[in-house]
Amino acid sequence: MKPPRFAYERATSVQAALQRLASHGPDIKLLAGGQSLMPMLNFRLLRPLLLLDINHLAELQQLQLLDDGTLRLGALLRHQQVLKAPQVQQHWPVMAAALAQIGHLAIRNRGTLGGSLSHADPAAEWPLLALLLQARLHLASAEGSRCIEAAEFITGAMSTALQPQELLTAVDFPALASGHGWGFAEHARRSGDFAIAAAGVLLWAEAGRITQVRIAVGGGVEGACRVPGAEAALLGCPLGMRPEDAVLQRVLDALRASVQPNVDLHASAALRAQIMAAMLRQALLAAWARLPGTGGTDQRSGSHA
Amino acid sequence: MHEAKAGETRSETRAPESGAELGEFADQEFVPIQLTVNGRRVRQLVEARLLLSDFLRGTLGLTGTHVGCEHGVCGACTVMVDGVSARSCLMLAAQTDGCTVQTVEGLGSMQAMSPLQQAFQQCHGLQCGFCTPGMLITATDMLANDHPADEAAVREGLSGNLCRCTGYQHIVQAVMQVAMQGDAVASKGAVNAAVNEVQS
Q1: Range B30-106 has CATH code 3.10.20.30
Q2: Taking a contact as any Cβ pair under 8 Å apart, which residues of chain B between 102 and 121 contact chain A?
Q3: How far apart are CA B165 and CA A195, in angstroms?
């Protein structure tokens, strides 16, 4: 399998790249990490006239912690760079746990944040994280730039709000209020394979009750999504060693009612629904155990669950 | 390049006859590159669509890099690019302009094998040998940059490289032997030395 013919150009600046996109957007594919684009080219699923290589745009490779605690990640940061960043390990453990599940080392060494979000594979970790962490995406074009919420950006499986003349330049992850419990769980046939289903959970509590909940799952027909019904089922729950069985049941019922599971060679709808529920349960229990005041002792549990 | 046989009209993958189909980009179909491969400077004009794996094997004759699936799944074509492992079937030769590439040929020689290569020999870490170059490069990166703490970490680190002889036990043993001997440090030194050598 060899790629079709195309021309190649190395972008020398963001401005130059935006000019190219402005004049020839529909004929161009941006080449970032290439870990999804190159297989698609090898399979000849795509036939761009020009590959615009943005790998050398240093402006897109910065990792910054802003004054208000926001983590600003340049779109060209590699998965492995983000995963190993001390700021991420310290303040966004749920991000580190999810990124460790992306492909294999050689893939994480090349694949980028911006590439994964723009590709929006329904099984990918970054779209799920962007929804869970309420990321804001910076999109630039020759005419100006805009900033949109992850929930607006990801419009479905393999589909985003990114226009042909636009470039995703950076992603902001707002600071998480301290004292949260987190959990992430993913299941794949083999380590590094595409996930059959995944779930991420963030919990906050005050005065012995759950006050804020965020739940995102992957494995639905539309790709990663938040599950507001499941979040609502947890609000106000009293803290204890673990959530009550009835509460857990309401959460999983809400998941089943609102997320239609994807079907492919690897899992039927019924199997995927079951795995998705199991992943949500694991992630929720891990997040619960990490909440201060739940008597959770093993702070590390669930990091690979 | 694929050429349509006489009378064949249905081939959808038929290559265009001339650069005209690339329109105003036609003059960007060939890209001059300059890189360092296993310590050797290389200059070449390459077709934009040429994969790094095919450049190494076909153009440079470095056939130690093996090509299996050509979509990033099997790991046989893994090479080091600027000190970290990458799938050479998922990179274009054109992208490596200015890069430092290390293939299995650059890890050691028959006379002076790297500690990892020696361990593969001692532990019988190969059967048919097809996956071996990718295994060696992946393990070299893992030992140098990802510091596997135990056998589970080694197995996880090798999970992106498929051995269809299924000889994983001995491959894992070989990598463990180096990791446990503390040769991980030596292995890292070797990679850094190679990178420094070519950068200086």
Answers
A1: yes
A2: none
A3: 26
In this prediction, residue A294 has a pLDDT band, given cuts at 50, 70 and 90, of: confident
Residue carrying structure tokens 């600046």: A13
Per-residue b or e along A123-150, where b marks 16 or more CB atoms closer than 10 Å to that residue's CB: bbbbbbbbbbbbbbbbbbbbeeeeeeeb
| List of chain B residues whose C-beta atoms are within 8 Å of the C-beta of residue A27 | 23, 25
Q: Dihedral through CA B186, CA B192, CA B197, CA B199, nearest 10?
A: 180
Domains and CATH numbers, chain A: 7-53 (3.30.43.10), 58-173 (3.30.465.10), 181-290 (3.30.390.50)
A3 contact residues in B (CB cutoff 8 A)? 49, 51, 92
Contact criterion met (CB below 8 Å) for A247 and A203: no
Q: Is the dihedral of CA B183, B185, B186, B191 positive or negative?
A: positive
Cβ contact (<8 Å) for A5 and B71? no
Which residues of chain B make contact with A44, given a CB cutoff of 8 A? 13
Give the nearest partner residue to A7 out of B48, B87, B157, using CB atoms.
B48
Cβ–Cβ of A105/B29 closer than 8 Å? no
Are residues A7 and B89, on separate chains, in Cβ contact within 8 Å? no
Once rounded to an integer, what is the mean pLDDT over residues A44-49? 96
Nearest chain A residue (CA) to B17: A5
Per-residue pLDDT of chain B (200 residues; tens, 9 = 90+): 344 343 333 333 444 445 558 989 999 999 999 999 999 999 999 999 999 999 999 999 999 999 999 999 999 999 999 999 999 999 999 999 999 999 999 999 999 999 999 999 999 999 999 999 999 999 999 999 988 889 999 999 999 999 999 999 999 999 999 998 864 455 555 555 555 554 44
**A with B: how many residue pairs have Cβ under 8 Å apart?**
120
Specify the CATH number of the domain B115-194. 1.10.150.120
This complex has an ipTM of: 0.91
